[in-house]
Design brief:
about 650 residues; alpha+beta; Glutaredoxin; 4 domains; eight-stranded mixed sheet; six-stranded mixed sheet; 22 helices; 24 strands
Length: about 650
């Protein structure tokens, strides 16, 4: 099979690298004479970053860009109305990412000076691509990766109907060491309360920023786009914005800035026709408010490679690719339009309800969850001590057998209230305190039972509902949220019924705590009730309970604490030829998967004794690579390694 890619931008290069690494013959055709360097910079979502790191696993060179950890939304008067911790976003200059992708792909795979002209057909099937310089490239499959103005798309489907330009952007790059001292790692946006006008700045390095000004052209527009007039136009519109805005503009070279007429088009009925298929902006175009374009291009490439290699018939592969990607891109198109409407009518939106102008985090692997062979229903509870002590085993299972498992977290409702609770010898909070101390001594996982004496919880329902609210935002961050509130109650003696702790945990893992509260008071209660109903239907009476099943309805259940071999035995029963992945025991790798670990977790995943593990953790702490929180009965170690800096 020979694949011909038309377009040597980020989408085409990513696709080409995947195919080359999978030993598929591929040729990338780029219309420019060298490496395409247009554009300024963009925010890269975790989905795209994880794929780029996957592509780079052999070269192991440093992924370009600056990690963005915080989003701050402010009014022009400087008043901050939203502040969120961001998980795994990077701001990357387009030229740096293209250069990075070029470094991974052999030079002979890219042919330049090839601007697409048309296809040659034989029996209604494409056999070759013809370029304006007269050159012809024959192949079996053709991929259009030639951007939002795609000529490949036009030949396959005709002209699309672009939406009218309702919002314009001016984009630039500024070098400013002074601003970097106060805005490092932060996406800052100033948005007018009364009209469609906003200014954003995002660092791309320690001293460099990409900035943008979004404006409503029906209120004020610019015809002459000379550098001098463009500078005057920006400064005039932004004259009432904070001093940092003028500081950024004063260090910008307006000869390299440009006006971007933003537009999109509706979801296509298909991304392919016969043996030609589209990816990236050629397939779908969203308004820039979502910061989704580049990430979508990279995710498209992985999804298409996944379906091509999993399916012998290319048309079936293309249809599967569309089914995987169409819902997400449709949501992004809709989200972009909704955000544009809100931008143009800001007075209609309450401060607390203004959405973050970023696509929600949704780990790329979740695209393929339905393809995983084993489905696991995991019934747990935020204050269940047995659910806490099996954490090392679950984490090991995730690393060794995660490619086979789709784990769905369900809340079980361990403690409705003390009036409604009676489990063995535990009948009151002081009984729980004694039990936790016993569990800690037996299983070497730190628990401090004093919370039940100093500030006892009267129910586990509120933190369970908060977890369901977290799931409504992001299923992966919800798991981090659950881990964080467990650390709070088991080690830090915090009563996680109290909203201040739930709110702090949400911010720490990158959730919008304002939205969490709205969902906590709203639909999350119904989702929690649905979990309780499901537990009742399945006869779940204790925690943890894990129910493993496959597509043939074979089912096995584990209740309570079990050795790791019990998990492996069930996996082998459902998939006899299952092969466990070898764990990379490098501490930085382990902490990249699990940002906090106990001694027992680190030792188990490192395959060393607890004493050896503790000594190594102390060394990492002395090197300031990790931090620690010491409780009465043990330590939680906290990563200080930079995410994705590998």
């Amino acid at each position: 099979m020979k694949v011909v890619i038309i377009g040597g931008g980020i989408a085409g290069l990513t696709m080409g690298i995947f195919l080359h690494q999978k030993k598929v013959e591929v040729v990338i055709n780029e219309r420019f004479s060298g490496m395409p360097v247009g554009g300024h910079a963009f925010l890269m979502h975790a989905d795209g970053l994880s794929i780029l790191n996957e592509l780079n696993s052999i070269n192991n060179s440093l992924l370009p860009g600056k990690l963005i950890k915080t989003y701050s939304l402010r009014r022009p008067d400087g008043n901050e109305i939203k502040r969120l911790q961001l998980n795994s976003w990077k701001c990357i200059k387009r030229v740096d990412l293209v250069r990075f992708l070029f470094s991974i792909l052999p030079d002979e795979k890219i042919k330049v000076n090839r601007e697409f002209s048309h296809f040659i057909y034989e029996n209604d099937k494409i056999t070759a691509a013809v370029f304006k310089n007269g050159e012809i490239e024959y192949g079996d499959i053709f991929i259009g990766a030639d951007g939002g103005n795609s000529k490949v798309r036009e030949e396959l489907f005709g002209k699309v109907t672009y939406t009218p330009v309702r919002v314009k952007e001016v984009v630039g790059i500024s070098y400013n060491e002074k601003v970097a001292k106060t805005h490092s790692g932060m996406f800052t946006k100033f948005q007018s309360r009364s009209t469609g006008l906003a200014f954003g700045l995002i660092p791309t390095s320690d001293i460099e920023f990409v900035w943008f000004m979004q404006f409503d052209p029906t209120v004020s527009d610019i015809e002459n786009k000379s550098p001098e007039e463009l500078e005057l136009f920006c400064k005039k519109l932004l004259e009432n914005f904070p001093p940092v805005v003028n500081e950024i503009l004063s260090t910008n070279d307006f000869s390299t800035s440009y006006v971007w007429n933003t537009r999109d088009f509706g979801l296509l009925p298909a991304f392919h026709k016969k043996n030609a298929v589209l990816i990236g902006d050629a397939a779908h175009l969203a308004l820039p408010f979502t910061s989704a374009g580049t990430t979508n291009a990279i995710v498209d490439a992985k999804a298409l490679v996944f379906t091509l290699l999993a399916t012998k018939d290319y048309e079936m592969a293309f249809e599967k690719y569309y089914s995987i990607r169409s819902q997400d891109v449709s949501e992004h198109i809709t989200l972009g339009r909704d955000l544009a409407n809100l931008f143009l009518s800001p007075q209609s939106q309450h401060d607390d309800d203004i959405p973050v102008p970023l696509i929600p985090t949704k780990k790329d692997d979740s695209i393929y969850e339905n393809s995983k062979q084993i489905q696991v229903l995991y019934f747990t509870d935020p204050i269940c001590s047995t659910c806490w002590i099996i954490q090392p085993l679950l984490r090991k299972m995730q690393l060794e057998y995660g490619t086979y498992l789709n784990i769905k977290y369900c809340m079980g409702g361990l403690l409705p209230s003390w009036e409604e609770y009676s489990s063995g010898k535990i009948r009151k909070p002081t009984d729980a305190a004694k039990h936790w101390e016993e569990v800690c001594a037996l299983h070497e996982m730190p628990l401090d039972g004093d919370v039940w004496k100093e500030d006892p919880l009267n129910s586990s329902y509120p933190p369970s509902i908060a977890f369901k609210a977290a799931q409504m935002q992001d299923t992966n961050k919800a798991i981090l949220f659950l881990r964080r509130i467990k650390e709070m109650v088991f080690l830090e003696k915090k009563n996680i019924i109290k909203w201040e702790f739930l709110e702090n945990a949400a911010f720490e893992v990158g959730l919008d705590s304002a939205r969490l509260l709205r969902d906590f008071e709203g639909n999350a209660k119904e989702l929690f009730k649905a979990d309780l109903d499901l537990a009742g239907e399945l006869g779940v009476t204790g925690f943890p309970t894990l129910i493993f099943s496959d597509s043939s309805n074979n089912q096995y259940t584990l209740k309570g604490y079990n050795p790791y071999e019990s998990f492996e035995d069930i996996i082998k029963k459902l998939i006899p030829d299952a092969k466990k992945d070898k764990i990379n025991t490098d501490p930085e790798n382990l902490f990249s998967h699990f940002p906090t670990m106990t001694d027992k977790e680190f030792a188990l995943l490192s395959n060393i004794s607890r004493e050896e593990g503790h000594k190594l953790l102390i060394d990492l702490y002395d090197q300031k690579l990790i931090d620690k929180y010491e409780s009465k009965n043990g330590i939680i170690w906290i990563s200080k390694f930079e995410a994705f800096e590998v």
